[in-house]
Amino acid sequence: MAPTATTMTAAAATGARKGPWTEQEDLQLVWFVRLFGERRWDFLAKVSGLNRTGKSCRLRWVNYLHPGLKRGRMTPQEEHLVLELHAKWGNRWSRIARKLPGRTDNEIKNYWRTHMRKKAQERKRSSSPSSSSSSGSNDSSINEPPSEVLSSEKHETDSIAEENSPLISGLELDDTDGIKGYTMDQIWNEIAASESVSNLSFEEYKEAGSASCSMGCPPLMATASPIWELDCSGSLWRMEEEDMRMLSPMPDLLVSNCQQSRDSWKH
DNA sequence: AAGAGAAGCAACCGCACTCGC
DNA sequence: TGCGAGTGCGGTTGCTTCTCT
């Protein structure tokens, strides 16, 4: 399919703003998303007065402003789960993210890239201290590790998942889905050797990590931005663009509240 | 204290898919 | 049935922050 207006450098084509979002933009976006719901991003971008593409708005919302998002470091349980799921599904980040409440595909992707790169480097260093060749081109092995290894590892992770994790065992695991094989055993070995937590079973992970909460109910959920806790009437999607002009502007009180919330959320 | 390099992360890009007309 | 708008996804880039020397 030919690129659409939205995909073809829409920001450039429309003169829309790019780059980091400002606090004011965030507030505006939150306000209008609460008003209209998480749909029709192009329309929302237009009526909100944000000089952004709908795509940009959606991304900002999904990755940063969405209620329930967890911030901060991955917990050991989450790290473990990411490794397991990546071993099964490969780079299906959104799919993996669905199994980690409060985490976004982008976050998991970033996590994987940085941490697995580190693991790969460490491993390379320990396994072949003399070989200085084969440079950073191994980056590809981070996302697409060689295919020859995982077969045995896959079974191991599968059994972990299926025996120890009700969360995973309930999944519909498509065998043809991204299990082409990865050098996860290398990664796993690294982790097992370097991290004491690896001595725990996945069940123990869960218990240690959240006495009060299972993976489905992350303990850090409370750190999500409180902006969304503000009450707001339901979706107003039936409204026409004409009606939009009649809407009252964002109340000053809301703005200041949101700003305070956001500040405290950041720190 | 300052500079360099590494790490972390937000955001953009382009492709593919879905759905309504 | 074809087309276009809207949306989702994975890959990539580049800026900011951190750490080391």
Account of the 3D structure:
With 267 residues, the protein is mainly alpha-helical. The protein folds into 2 domains: 10-67 and 225-266, Homeodomain-like (Arc Repressor Mutant, subunit A, Orthogonal Bundle), CATH 1.10.10.60; 76-126 and 137-220, no CATH class. It is 54% helix and 0% strand. It is elongated. It starts with 9 loop residues before the first helix and ends with a helix. Residues 1-9, 129-246 and 260-267 have low confidence and may be disordered. The protein binds a DNA duplex (21 and 21 nucleotides) through residues 1-9, 11, 18-21, 39-43, 54-56, 58-60, 62-64, 91-95, 105-107, 109-111, 113-114, 117-118, 143.
Instruction: Report how far apart the termini are.
Output: 44 Å
Oligomeric state of the chains present here: single chain
User: Which sequence of SSEs, written as H and E, runs from N to C?
Assistant: HHHHHHHHHHHHHH
Residues in helices, as a percent range: 40-55%
Q: What is the count of DSSP helices, taking H or I runs of 4+ residues? A: 14
Question: How many domains, as an integer?
Answer: 2
Overall strand count: 0
Low-pLDDT sequence parts: 1-9, 129-246, 260-267
Strand content: under 5%
Question: What can be said about the biggest beta sheet?
Answer: none
**Average pLDDT over all residues:** 57
Structure class: mainly alpha
Radius of gyration: 22 Å
Overall outline: elongated
